[in-house]
Every structure is written in structure tokens, then in C-alpha cells.
């Protein structure tokens, strides 16, 4: 079959402002096994430009594929664009099979099949093996009922097949690197870059995230094979920066240390960027020199908030003392720390936000990323927010960088001012500016200055968008009325992957593609 993988242009601020793109790892992970099965596979990455919707549709139709596979990373904000493009393609190319995969389609397959008659099937869960089986069935005309982990229509009725099994060997399916031109992808200030993944899942129970619920358990690739793949990409394709898609690659100390040592043994000079928990950094205080030797230049740590009551509410499981110690340890070893800080909880007040600002400054992290709490239906936090009014009904803005939920004690404009003040105060304080100007490590100094250049553009863009483009209003509907009942979500969550428990997260077409820290 002629199969076309499509990454639509994403409206998120982080995709538009940096003018640097990372390849869609999820689609590449699906593409590799399909190529190995003998299919003719190609990729269109709509992020470049970005490609206008009409031009993207025209190019898809020009290639006349037998099947078009749409995948996107993370949240629901790209789904409206996927739906628009798919509908136009189906109208112009009615013989093409339209397939969706990703977090949102996994948990909204009923709504999608109800509202989008042109969709042939939806891949629910990890996509590597399921996509192979689905394409094989479509090519041979076999019954789709025999393909686990998909949803489709049969005689006008929506059908969800039994869940596909968890992929136990993450090295069994290769990434289709040949689908991209490495020269077009960059990050970290113009350096050639890709997204890579060591593990899937997370052993922790934070209720705003569904990693544990969907993946059921933490799994990792072979440490030596991943190190060898990174070295090969560097030597053969000139890749300098590797952005880890993992939520928590260091969850297992033994395999993580084995990976660090294997990469050091490859003797390649690369930049590694990833996410982890502060607890893991503190745990690994005695081997942080290996982190640095392997090439790590920054870790994003999801601290989410500096208020103990809020951390308890979202079941973060961390501690403020660990957060501070992790930042200190990373700085001692010449590794940048970025912390996420989330605003928009129901009862936050001016006093809460001012206290959060003071605590963030006292943390003395190198970079902060301020986000807004977003009630995605696949997270346990959704149940807590189900009855809250929505102030941003445009789903393309449910990207963590726009306020979605109404607050009981603060209008949107005031929360926005607080967030902008917190960002500016944290990044423009004297200590931070001194590191920008005089950091002794030239690679780290480059990274700091790149982040400031990009951050300045994003900061002003968000202000202009808030004043002239965004429309915040309560439309009289709650989160539950926008997205559906939590009970429906929990029923579906228990069926996404064998062994998953109710109250969990979504699935990805194959892997988390989101490039952290943009």
C-alpha cells in the first residue's frame, strides 16, 4: 500500500515561535515497521512553514495515497486541524482510507466516528504493532474485528475491538529515520536535532497526568542499543541535539546508569535534553557526573507548584526540599534546570500567586515554564475539574499556554498578568542575568542565550495575542459539558490497554512526541 503519514501544522505557541522544528517521533515510530512490512511509506510534516491547510490538502491529494495516517502529539489542541484536513482529503480523494492515532482519538473515538463519517479507523494505544495489523487487514480485505486496539464502524455501528497488548520489547520496532531530511530539523539554537525515547510510562500517581494509567508500568529500551543509535545518528547524519520524549527516563536507576555509561563509551559530543523528577536527581547525586559526561545540558522538572496544599491536591508526591536540592545539584554539575509552574487552580488568590512568585525566585532555577492547568479527559484530575466553567471554548488553545478553566476569585485578565509578571521576574532577576552574561561553560551559555531569545519572542507574542486575538468568555458550559462525563472516560480508560486501571491517561499513536522545554 501507498501510505502517507501526516503531521498537521500545530497551532500551539511553542510550535510557531521558535522557528525550529523537531521531527514527529510518533509517526516515525509507526512508519519504520510499516516500511519493513513492504509498504511504500512517506511523510508530510505540516509544521514546516507552517504549510497552509489548503496547500497541505493539495499535496496529500497529489500524492494519491491508499491510506492517510494522521497522528499528533499530546493534547487535544491539534485535533480540530486534523479533522479539517482529513475531511477535505476525503472529499477530494474518496478512495483513500483515513486513520487517526494519538491521545485524543484514543479517548474520543466514539465522538470522532459519530461526527466524522470519512474516518476509516482509529488506532487506540501504542501504534507500532496495531498500525501494522490494521494496514495488513485493509490491504487484504480481512475483517477489522480481528485487529485488536482499533475502533471503526460496522453496519453503521461504532465498534471498539479488544485492547492491544502492551509492547514489552521497545526495541522490537525500529524508528523510520529514513522518512525525514535531518537537515531540516533543528533545536537548541540552530543545531541539528531529533526526538528520542528511552522509556515509556511512569511509576508515579500525579492526577493531572495519565502516564501510569495508560502505560500500566514503566518500560525501557536496551541501554546499549539506544546509546549506539544516538552515536550512529550523530556520526552518519550530524545530529547534535537529542530531546528525550520520556516523562521520566531515569525512573530505573540501574538501566539509566547503564545507558549513561554506554553513551559515554561511544565517545560522541552530543547535547541531551530531557525531563525527570527532582527526586531522581537527588537520588542520583553520586552519579550526576555521568549525566554531564553523557551530554546532558538541561533537565525539565515538573514541580507544577510551590504550594504544599496544591501539590497534595494533584498528588505530585514530591517535596519542596527535594526540588531545591535538585536545582542545586544540577547547577553544581553544570546542567541547566527548568521548572514548570502551573497556574489556574480554582481557588488561587493574589496572595497565593505572590507567594508562588517569591518561592520560585528562591528556588533559583535557571529557567521556568509557566503553564495553565488543563482538564484533559484522560487524566484523573478531570474528575476534580468536571464541574468548573470553561473560559476558553476553542479547543486549539487547550495547549497548556492558554487559560481554560474559570477561577472563582480571579478573572482571566488578572491571572494572565500574574503569569507574565512571574515569568519576567524569574528570568530577569540579577542572578539569572549574570548567568546569561558570564556563564563559564560556552555550551551552557549558548543554551541560556538561545532560551532568552526565544522566550522574549514568546512572551511578547502571548501578550499581543491576549490583547487582540484571544477571546476569553464563559459560554455557560462546564468542562464535563464540553468533553463528556468522567464515568464515560473511566470506562474507556480501563479498555485502552490490557491491564490498565480506571481513571487513567490516554494512548499515543506510538510515543509521546511532545518536545519539552520549547
Overview of the structural elements:
By secondary structure, the chain is of the alpha/beta class. The protein contains 21 helices and 16 strands. It has helices at 13-16, 25-36, 53-63, 79-92, 103-107, 109-115, 127-140, 211-215, 223-237, 253-266, 278-283, 288-294, 308-313, 320-332, 350-363, 381-385, 412-428, 430-438, 442-468, 479-483, 486-496; strands at 2-7, 40-45, 67-71, 97-101, 121-123, 150-154, 157-160, 186-187, 191-196, 199-200, 219-220, 241-244, 271-276, 296-304, 336-343, 367-372. The protein has a seven-stranded mixed sheet with strand order 2-1-3-4-5-6-7, with helices on both faces. A seven-stranded mixed sheet has the order 8-9-12-13-14-15-16, with helices on both faces. Strand 6 and strand 7 form a beta hairpin. Helix 3 (53-63) packs across helix 4 (79-92) and helix 15 runs parallel beside helix 17 (412-428). It is globular and about 65 Å long.
Short note summarizing the structure:
The chain has 21 helices and 16 strands. It has 518 residues and is of the alpha/beta class. It starts with a strand and ends in a 22-residue tail after the last helix.
